[in-house]
Write a structure and sequence with these properties.
- This protein has two domains: 2-144, Jelly Rolls; 150-224, Winged helix-like DNA-binding domain superfamily/Winged helix DNA-binding domain (Arc Repressor Mutant, subunit A).
- The protein is built from ten helices and ten strands.
- Helix 7 packs antiparallel against helix 10 (215-224).
- The protein is elongated and about 60 Å long.
- The model is unreliable at 140-147 (pLDDT under 50).
- Helix content is 46%, strand content 22%.
- With 225 residues, it is α+β, with helices and mostly antiparallel strands.
Length: 225
């Protein structure tokens, strides 16, 4: 407990809180350990958490339209990160996080942290400063990488190709290579994204093709992806 409290007290976002509030956050922190190379969260996942690194390093990476992977930043001890869904409900991740070394991370879900932030304007201001700073350096990197949310493009394609089918079937003549061409990425990336959609209950993969199960979920993915 004391280690978490010290970590919170040193962080600009949490340092502006009252000691009693930091104690409450320390008690609610979800600590998770990851081995080097272990994924923390994947691109396309809905992940409404704020993350604070205590030990190790975590890489944030994204897939460009070419299928290449670009390292956006390396999170070090004391660094914060957040999922898109922390700010926009249902918004999927546009990057993936992978532990580069053995790491200890603390997580807070949106529904537990947001009420405290709303009651503390100085903390909200610090978070806004962090978000603005992150956008300032990440924007040019993403533009240079020709990065666009692959999940959003694939979701829009599946929605359009299943719109006329009562059972949600996606047109059977849509091959993996064609999906890769439409979404401006590689077949391997599309394949991984389809399995991720399946794991999230958005689609059902069958031998003869695939079916859209959750049009509303795919629509959110197409909007935020």
């Amino acid at each position: 407990m004391s280690a978490v409290l010290d970590l919170l007290a040193r962080n600009p976002l949490f340092a502006v809180l009252q000691p009693s509030d930091r104690l409450a956050l320390a008690q609610e922190a979800v600590g998770r350990r990851y081995e080097g190379g272990e994924p923390v969260v994947q691109c396309g996942d809905v992940w409404p958490y704020l993350l604070l690194v205590e030990e190790g390093r975590v890489a944030a990476a994204a897939d460009a339209a070419s299928g290449e992977t670009f390292l956006l930043t390396m999170l070090e001890p004391g660094d914060l990160f957040w999922g898109q869904a922390f700010f926009r409900e249902g918004a999927p991740m546009v990057v993936r996080l992978v532990a580069s070394d053995a790491s200890l991370l603390y997580l807070w879900p949106r529904d537990r942290l947001l009420p405290l932030l709303l009651e503390n304007p100085p903390a909200l201001w610090e978070l806004a400063r962090l978000v603005a700073g992150r956008l300032e350096w990440s924007g040019p990197i993403l533009d240079a990488a020709d990065f666009q949310p692959i999940a959003a493009r694939l979701a829009r394609l599946l929605l359009s190709r299943s719109a006329r089918a009562d059972d949600g079937r996606v047109s059977g003549d849509l091959t993996l290579a064609e999906m890769a061409s439409w979404t401006r990425t590689t077949s391997d990336v599309v394949c991984r994204m389809l399995y991720r959609f399946s794991d999230q209950g958005l689609i059902r993969l069958v031998r003869a093709g695939l079916f859209v199960l959750d049009r509303d979920g795919l629509a959110r993915m197409a909007q935020w992806g």
